[in-house]
Design a protein that fits this description.
Blueprint (H helix, E strand, L loop, with lengths): L2 E5 L4 H12 L3 E6 L2 H7 L4 E4 L7 H8 L4 E4 L12 H16 L5 E5 L11 H14 L4 E7 L1 E3 L6 H9 L4 E4 L5 E2 L1 E3 H12 L7 E5 L5 E2 H12 L6 E4 L2 H15 L9 H9 L6 H5 L8 H7 L4 H33 L1 H9 L5 H21 L3 H25 L14 H14 L4
Helix pairs in contact: 1-7, 3-4, 4-5, 6-8, 6-13, 13-15, 13-17, 14-15, 15-16, 16-17
């Protein structure tokens, strides 16, 4: 049985490639940097847990020495705490193709339509540099450049597209005339498996996508219809200065670990359009690619799709609300320290113990309010919020049970805060 190794195998595109290669009879091994994420997607797959941007050429020679096919489906949209574009798109590719030099393996590089050395974003420029490394190598290489990839799984740009199409009543128009082509993720994966089998030869570059081009406005309307929502009552043109502001905010959040599809690179890419020329793929005898209508027909929208589309919009608002709530609680505790102490001292708690309790509460509030904004700590912060709130209600009921009947509801208001923390913790999934 032939062996295939897929880099980025638990990602949106990588996972589809794993399934397509398995269907073609390959024994597939996945490469990814998170064992937890890997096991969620393919619990029975053989996994190599590595950060590809840090893996040495000597390690790649050992890991890929018996591979017949190597598929590079890894990538990142923008630099951040977790990602370095040059390291992932160029440095890692240099070491991989060097390790494969002189072997019989076919190396399939999944790039992106529109890459060039003078592209407007670092994503496209580094992808172009990585492609150039592949083309100059001594491997049996193939480079496939898909357009906008859609599928039943919503992640990144495809998740944002669903969310923007699901806004209630009023829609926002952004880059309405930007040209867009699409491809079903399964068509992309089938193309990878087809090319990897040697049916089309090697040493070629091909764009992958449907032949028809849509404007972004048309695509958004079609996705809204696919979700089952009626036409918007009105549409508002979103000014570019506001989009730039949103992109800058998303970039800053990227340094806290949030890989938002609203980052500057994504917005610039969308503004430029996402199109390719699939003629070379067709001329080589490549598999047919479905149109947008056929793609959407193949992934019918369900209640889960509609719920996800709305929840995707609400999650960042919910996280922001939690952060503001806890940070303000801590700041108000600092500003009203004596009043906070008096709640306990008036109920026969010693001044020293009351001061320690108030200070502890202030520190916990500020730490949790800040921690929920950091991606790798956000779920733990939610768990901390639930525990601290529970302790607050427990000890508060013991020491000051009368506050349950207070007209301002200091205890009652904690209950929806707990529920909001539970809601955010359950929705914090990368894949």
């Amino acid at each position: 049985m032939k062996k295939a190794v897929v880099l980025g195998a638990y990602g949106f595109i990588g996972a589809a490639c794993v399934r397509a290669l398995q269907a073609d009879g390959y024994a597939v091994c996945g490469v990814g940097r998170s064992l937890e994420s890997a096991k969620k997607i393919f619990p029975d797959l053989v996994w190599i847990i590595r950060d590809i941007s840090q893996t040495l050429e000597s390690d790649w020679k050992e890991l890929l020495g018996d591979a017949d096919v190597v598929v590079n489906a890894s990538g990142a949209l923008q630099d951040g705490t977790r990602d370095n574009l040059n390291a992932i798109h160029v440095g890692a590719v240099e070491r991989i193709v060097s390790a494969l030099s002189g072997t019989h393996a076919t190396f399939v590089q999944i790039s992106a339509a529109g890459v060039s050395d003078d592209a407007p974003t670092a994503f496209f420029r580094t992808k172009a540099h990585g492609d150039a490394v592949v083309m100059a190598s001594a491997t049996n290489w193939i480079i496939l450049r898909p357009v906008l990839v859609l599928g039943s799984e919503a992640y990144g740009g495809s998740a944002l597209l669903r969310a923007s199409a699901a806004t209630p009543c009023i829609g926002g128009r952004v880059f309405a005339d930007a040209p867009i082509q699409t491809i079903h993720v399964d068509d992309l994966a089938a193309a990878v498996a087809h090319a990897a089998g040697g049916k089309l030869g090697t040493h070629f570059v091909a764009d992958l996508g449907e032949t028809e081009t849509h404007t972004f406005a048309e695509l958004t309307h079609r996705i809204r219809s696919w979700l089952g929502y009626p036409k918007w009552s009105a549409e508002i043109e979103i000014p570019e200065w506001l989009l730039r502001l949103v992109g800058t905010g998303a970039d800053l959040l990227g340094w806290l670990g949030w890989r938002s599809p609203l980052r500057t690179n994504a917005l610039r890419s969308l503004k430029s359009g996402i199109t390719g020329d699939p003629s070379h793929w067709q001329e080589r005898g490549g598999l047919a690619v479905r149109s947008l209508e056929e793609t959407l027909a193949a992934i019918p929208a369900t209640a889960q799709e509609r719920t996800f589309s709305r929840m995707y919009l609400l999650l960042p608002l919910a996280i922001g609300c939690l952060s503001v709530f806890w940070l303000l609680s801590g700041l108000i505790g600092i500003l009203s320290f004596e009043n906070a102490k008096s709640v306990l001292t008036e109920r026969n708690v010693s001044s020293g113990i009351a001061a320690v309790a108030v200070i502890g509460g202030i520190v916990a509030d500020l730490v949790l309010g800040a921690a929920v904004l950091v991606r790798r700590w956000s779920r733990k912060a939610c768990a901390g919020m639930i525990l601290v709130s529970g302790a607050y209600l427990l000890f508060g009921s013991w020491l000051a049970a009368d506050l349950w009947s207070d007209p301002l509801g200091p205890f009652v208001k904690v209950l929806p805060a707990i529920l909001l923390a539970v809601f955010v913790a359950f929705l914090l999934e990368d894949r």
